[in-house]
Amino acid sequence: MSDFPARIKQSSNKHRSRIVLALDIDYEERDNALIFAENNINLLKDYICAVKINFHLILPLDLYSEVKQITDLVHSYDLQAIADVKLNDIGNTNEVALSHLWSSGFDAATVSSFIGYETLKEAIEHAHTNENGIISLVYMSHKSAADTYGLKIIDPKSGSTMNMYEMFLNWADELNADGIIVGATIPEIIKQCSSRIKNKALIFSPGIGVQGGDARQAIDNGSDYLIVGRSIIQSKEPEKEASRLRSLTWQ
After folding, report:
1. Which of 139, 229, 150 is nearest to 184 (CA)?
2. Model confidence at 41, in pLDDT bands (50, 70, 90)?
3. CA distances, 136 to each of 33, 34, 69, 128, 155 (Å)
4. Which residues does residue 163 pair with via DSSP β-bridges, in sequence order?
5. Catalytic: 86?
6. Where are the domains of the chain?
7. Alpha carbon of residue 59 to chain centroid
8. Do 135 and 225 meet the contact criterion of CB atoms below 8 Å apart?
9. What is the greatest pairwise CA distance in the chain?
C-alpha cells in the first residue's frame, strides 16, 4: 500500500479531525476560483485533515501553476490533497492523467470502479509506484446511485449473484485500494463495507448535511473520513460549522 494512508492518518491525528474539505464551487464563481480555494483553506485549515479539489474547480484553473499553488498551500498546513476526478477511461489515458495530477501536487485521486478490474489494478499500481493513493468508488451518495451501484449482477469472476457495489468492494479489497467512497446517505452499506475492509482500506463518506447524510451515524457505522463541502462552505459561519463537525466526529 502507498504512503497516502499513513500521511492522511498523520494529518488527521495532528489536526484531531476526520473532515475532508470538499471545495465545491459554483459556475458563477469560476473567475475567482483560485481566490475561493485559498480563502477557504486558510480559513478552515485547523479543522480538517485533507482538501478534496473537485473536478469542476480544476477545470477553470491552470494545472501546473494555479492548481499547484493550491496543493502547495494544502501541504504547507500538513494537510493532504485529493483530486476528485473520478477517472473513468482506458488504462493508458488514466495513467497519463494520474501522472499530471501527481506532478501538480496531489496525494490521491478518485477513480470510478466501472473501468473494470484490470484497469483499476493498473491505476492503483501506478499510484503506489509514486507513493500516492487511489480512492475507488464503491457507492456514491446521490439519490440516483442506486440505479447503478445497487444493480443485481453476476460476478464474472465467481459466477455469484451480488450487487454491483459488492463487486466493487471486492475489487478494492483484492487490489489494495487505499480508500473507497461510500456515501454517508447509506449508513447500512457503510457498515457492510466496514466489516469487510476495515483496517485494509479507508472509508471516505460524502453526502453530509445537504444530501441528508448524518456525520455521527456515518462514523459509528465505520467511516474513517467525512467529505464535507457545501454544509461548511455555504453556512453562515463556516469556521463554527467545521469546528462542530470536527468535535462531533473525533474520537
Report:
1. 139
2. very high
3. 26, 27, 26, 14, 18
4. 152
5. yes
6. 4-249
7. 18
8. no
9. 52
| Catalytic annotation, pick one of 68, 86, 157, 198 | 86
Give the span between the Cα atoms of 227 and 182, in whole angstroms. 10
Average pLDDT, the chain: 94
Asked if 37 and 60 count as a contact pair (C-beta separation under 8 A), the reply is no
The neighbour count for residue 244, using CB atoms within 10 Å, is 15
| pTM beyond 0.85, yes or no | yes
- CA 120, CA 114: separation in Å to the nearest integer? 9
C-alpha cell at 229: 463541502
Backbone angles phi, psi at 60, to 5 degrees: -80, 0
SS3 content of the chain, % helix, strand, coil (to 5): 50, 20, 30
> What sign has the CA pseudo-torsion 93, 94, 100, 103?
negative
pLDDT in tens, 180-227: 999 999 999 999 999 999 889 999 999 987 777 899 999 999 999 999
Which of these, 122, 179, 219, 184, lies nearest to 8 by C-alpha position? Answer: 179
pLDDT of amino acid 27 = 63
Residue 1, pLDDT score: 43
Distance (Å, whole) CA 231 – CA 209:
6
Grid cell listed for 146: 442506486
Any idea which fold 4-249 has? Answer: TIM Barrel (3.20.20)
Give the burial string for 23-45 (b: 16+ CB within 10 Å, else e): bbbeeeeeeebbebbeebbeebb
* 54 within 8 A of 63, measured Cβ to Cβ: no
